[in-house]
């Protein structure tokens, strides 16, 4: 105990002497992993999503998936998904594009080269076939002739383009919202009050965007309190649960049409499946047999439907027909090409209802068990199929309480023996 106290004191003095307490000493650089050594309970690690992951989050959100179910796809908390969706109020921001008349990065690089060789602004403008005033403004607002840098100037122009845009009729719309009118009622009233005057009309979607996307700086956030539904984020009206399955997966057969013999788990050969995700957009398909809880893990190259279906077909062909009769999956687009799977394997595919992971309870529970072997946030692509099969074997040889402490492997072996 006394030795630990002395060591703690020595370490504290060393850290203080190096200037790492409170502020960083200007002449001493902390170790690269210093921030990882700090108490993470006081300063939680910020979670970042790649552009591809953000696109998938918005895609799932517009298909009416909950933040919790989206978070499970990335092995993260729903709060991290909220941080992506909330800045724009749950409304998918449009893809940004540069104006056709805006200076490009290559043009800015030509400007930088021209300045370095002491060319005049007019000479640079002639070379780029631009107005001299355009080149003059560009150089003046980005550090002048001596400080101009092409890449930094291009990024600054991209950032400046995010300035708030004014909304039409802000005062009139605000007054009606304070009277508890809905945005749709306000838009309808404007059409009646000013027929044929498009400049005095505004759509209800524009009103909603001005309310939820506060970066616009037009309608104050306090006006949200006057709406009937006081949500902090908004879903598109086109993303209803009713339309979700029909719009994304063609010819999907609902789980409600699944035979009763599958529901009571009395007959083997019916499986539940899902994808679990890791870092660097890596995924593994997990399959659980409902009767025996037998697990199969399938390595997939990507989560696109072609890669997933191809991997599932390959794994299905390793089992006798009597032990692979149906597959129940969630509403993920990775199974959009399910007719190809059924055609190749003669296995029926059923889809769960939206936001109903409990309808694949065995698979969800197994995915939690798998985190002992495949921790959250790790790169799953490093595991070979042989490694995944070894992990599945360990799970299949663990006794289960729900099987009266038989192992899934033993129960499945009995099923094989009974089928001859």
Keywords, separated by commas or semicolons:
420 residues, alpha/beta, 5-stranded mixed sheet, elongated, disordered N terminus
- Which spans have pLDDT < 50 for at least 5 consecutive residues? 1-44, 239-247
Q: Helical percent range?
A: 40-55%
Largest sheet: 5 strands, mixed
Rg calculated over all Cα atoms: 29 Å
Number of helices: 20
Large-scale geometry: elongated
Tell me the fraction of residues in β-strands, as a range: 5-15%
Strand order of the largest sheet: 3-2-1-4-5
Secondary structure: number of strands: 5
Straight-line N-to-C gap: 66 Å
Mean pLDDT: 78
**N to C succession of SSEs:** HHHHHHHHHHHHHHHEEEHEHEHHH
**Alpha-beta classification:** alpha/beta
Polypeptide structure, described:
It is a single chain. With 420 residues, the chain is of the alpha/beta class. It contains 20 helices and five strands. The protein is elongated. The termini are far apart.
């Amino acid at each position: 105990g006394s030795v630990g106290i002395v060591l703690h004191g020595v370490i504290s003095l060393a850290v203080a002497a190096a200037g790492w307490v409170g502020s960083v000493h200007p002449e001493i650089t902390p170790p690269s992993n210093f921030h990882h050594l700090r108490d993470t309970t006081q300063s939680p690690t910020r979670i970042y999503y790649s552009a591809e992951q953000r696109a998938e989050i918005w895609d799932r959100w517009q298909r009416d998936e909950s933040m919790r179910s989206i978070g499970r796809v990335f092995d993260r908390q729903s709060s991290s998904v909220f941080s992506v969706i909330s800045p724009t109020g749950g409304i998918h921001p449009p893809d940004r594009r540069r104006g056709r008349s805006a200076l490009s990065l290559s043009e800015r690089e030509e400007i930088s080269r021209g300045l370095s060789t002491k060319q005049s602004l007019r000479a640079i403008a002639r070379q780029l076939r631009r107005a001299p005033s355009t080149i003059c403004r560009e150089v003046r607002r980005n550090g002048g002739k001596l400080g101009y840098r092409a890449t930094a100037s291009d990024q600054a122009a991209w950032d400046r383009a995010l300035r708030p845009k004014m909304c039409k009729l802000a005062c009139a719309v605000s007054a009606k919202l304070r009277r508890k009118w809905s945005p749709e009622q306000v838009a309808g009233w404007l059409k009646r009050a000013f027929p044929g005057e498009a400049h005095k009309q505004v759509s209800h979607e524009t009103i909603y965007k001005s309310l939820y996307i506060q970066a616009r700086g037009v309608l104050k956030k306090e006006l949200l309190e006057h709406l009937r539904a006081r949500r902090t984020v908004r879903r598109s009206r086109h993303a209803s649960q009713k339309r979700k399955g029909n719009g994304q997966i063609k010819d999907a057969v609902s789980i409600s049409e699944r035979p009763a013999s599958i529901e009571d788990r009395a007959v083997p050969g019916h499986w539940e499946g899902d994808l679990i995700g890791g870092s660097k957009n890596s995924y593994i398909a997990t399959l659980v047999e409902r009767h025996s809880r037998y697990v199969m893990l399938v390595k997939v190259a990507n989560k696109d439907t072609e890669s997933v279906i191809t991997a599932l077909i390959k794994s299905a062909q390793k089992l006798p027909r009597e032990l692979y009769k149906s597959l129940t999956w969630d509403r993920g687009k990775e199974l959009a090409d399910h007719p190809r799977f059924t055609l190749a394997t003669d296995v029926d595919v059923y889809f769960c209802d939206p936001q109903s992971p409990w309808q694949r309870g065995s698979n969800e529970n197994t995915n939690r068990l798998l985190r002992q072997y495949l921790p959250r946030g790790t790169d799953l692509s490093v595991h070979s199929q042989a490694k995944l099969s070894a992990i599945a074997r360990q799970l299949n040889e663990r006794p289960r309480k729900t099987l009266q402490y038989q192992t899934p492997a033993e129960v499945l072996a009995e099923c094989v023996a009974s089928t001859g």
